[in-house]
Amino acid sequence: MEVIDEAKTIELYQALLKLIDTGVIILEPEVSYVREALRIALEHEITLYDSLYIAQAQKHGELLTSDRGQAEIANKIGIKVYLIE
């Protein structure tokens, strides 16, 4: 594990804000996915937290994750999955 100092933290935060401001990263409210996420969570016996990402991926068509279980469920639902190992 790498520990970063305050200056590096601020630098990374500013880079993140730039990606958000330029539309590279789009932040969406979770509430718009809760109903579908709850259905997925109950059907597949996973956390609502994990299922929120799957519900959002249904809308956008792809999921990038390092969570193998989440990837398997998304794949079953028909979502294109990129698994980071």
Indicate the topology.
Blueprint: H1 6-21, H2 34-44, H3 48-60, E1 62-65, H4 68-77, E2 80-83
Parallel strand pairs: 1-2
Helix pairs in contact: 2-3, 3-4
* Largest sheet: spatial strand order: 1-2
End-to-end distance, in Å?
16 Å
The beta-strand count equals: 2
Report the principal-axis shape.
globular
Query: What is the gyration radius calculated from CA atoms?
Result: 15 Å
Bin the helical content. Answer: 55-70%
Tell me the quaternary state.
Answer: single chain
**Number of H- or I-type helical stretches:** 4
Unreliable residue stretches: none
Structural class, please?
mainly alpha
Give the averaged pLDDT, no decimals. Answer: 94
Q: What is the H-and-E element order?
A: HHHEHE
Summarize the main sheet.
2 strands, parallel
Percent strand: 5-15%
Structure summary:
With 85 residues, the protein is mainly alpha-helical. Helix content is 59%, strand content 9%.
Tell me what the structure shows.
By secondary structure, the protein is mainly alpha-helical. The chain contains 4 helices and 2 strands, in the order αααβαβ. It has helices at 6-21, 34-44, 48-60, 68-77; strands at 62-65, 80-83. Helix 4 (68-77) links the parallel strand 1 (62-65) and strand 2. It is globular and about 45 Å long. It starts with 5 loop residues before the first helix and ends with a strand.
